[in-house]
Specification:
3 helices, 58% helix, single chain, alpha+beta, 3 strands
Length: 67
Protein backbone atom coordinates (compact mmCIF):
# COMPACT_ATOMS: atom_id res chain seq x y z
CA UNK A 1 0.00 0.00 0.00
CA UNK A 2 1.29 3.44 -0.88
CA UNK A 3 1.73 5.80 2.03
CA UNK A 4 1.14 8.78 -0.28
CA UNK A 5 -0.51 8.97 -3.68
CA UNK A 6 1.52 9.35 -6.84
CA UNK A 7 1.50 12.77 -8.48
CA UNK A 8 0.57 13.38 -12.09
CA UNK A 9 2.74 15.65 -14.23
CA UNK A 10 0.06 18.32 -13.83
CA UNK A 11 0.06 18.03 -10.02
CA UNK A 12 3.86 18.11 -9.82
CA UNK A 13 3.97 21.18 -12.07
CA UNK A 14 1.41 22.93 -9.86
CA UNK A 15 3.43 22.16 -6.71
CA UNK A 16 6.59 23.47 -8.36
CA UNK A 17 4.79 26.49 -9.83
CA UNK A 18 6.15 25.38 -13.17
CA UNK A 19 4.86 24.06 -16.48
CA UNK A 20 4.12 20.49 -17.47
CA UNK A 21 6.81 20.54 -20.22
CA UNK A 22 9.35 21.65 -17.60
CA UNK A 23 8.47 18.69 -15.37
CA UNK A 24 8.72 16.32 -18.35
CA UNK A 25 12.16 17.79 -19.06
CA UNK A 26 13.23 17.20 -15.46
CA UNK A 27 12.22 13.57 -15.86
CA UNK A 28 13.97 13.17 -19.20
CA UNK A 29 17.11 15.26 -18.74
CA UNK A 30 17.67 15.92 -15.04
CA UNK A 31 16.99 12.55 -13.45
CA UNK A 32 13.68 13.16 -11.67
CA UNK A 33 12.43 9.64 -10.96
CA UNK A 34 9.04 8.84 -12.41
CA UNK A 35 6.97 5.77 -13.17
CA UNK A 36 5.44 5.35 -16.60
CA UNK A 37 1.97 3.87 -16.39
CA UNK A 38 0.63 3.43 -19.89
CA UNK A 39 1.15 6.75 -21.64
CA UNK A 40 1.35 8.83 -18.46
CA UNK A 41 4.05 9.45 -15.86
CA UNK A 42 3.51 9.41 -12.10
CA UNK A 43 5.93 10.84 -9.56
CA UNK A 44 6.18 9.67 -5.96
CA UNK A 45 6.16 12.58 -3.50
CA UNK A 46 9.33 11.25 -1.86
CA UNK A 47 11.11 11.22 -5.25
CA UNK A 48 10.10 14.81 -5.96
CA UNK A 49 11.27 15.87 -2.48
CA UNK A 50 14.57 14.02 -2.91
CA UNK A 51 15.13 15.61 -6.33
CA UNK A 52 14.51 19.08 -4.92
CA UNK A 53 16.80 18.48 -1.94
CA UNK A 54 19.60 17.16 -4.14
CA UNK A 55 19.41 20.10 -6.50
CA UNK A 56 19.06 22.72 -3.78
CA UNK A 57 22.25 21.47 -2.11
CA UNK A 58 24.15 21.45 -5.39
CA UNK A 59 22.98 24.95 -6.26
CA UNK A 60 24.10 26.28 -2.87
CA UNK A 61 27.46 24.49 -3.16
CA UNK A 62 27.97 25.81 -6.71
CA UNK A 63 27.22 29.33 -5.54
CA UNK A 64 29.71 29.06 -2.68
CA UNK A 65 32.43 27.84 -5.07
CA UNK A 66 32.01 30.95 -7.24
CA UNK A 67 32.61 33.39 -4.38
Amino acid sequence: MLSRPLLTIHEAAALLKSSEPTVRGLIKDEGLRAIKLGREYRIAVKDLEAFLNDHAIRAAADHDDND
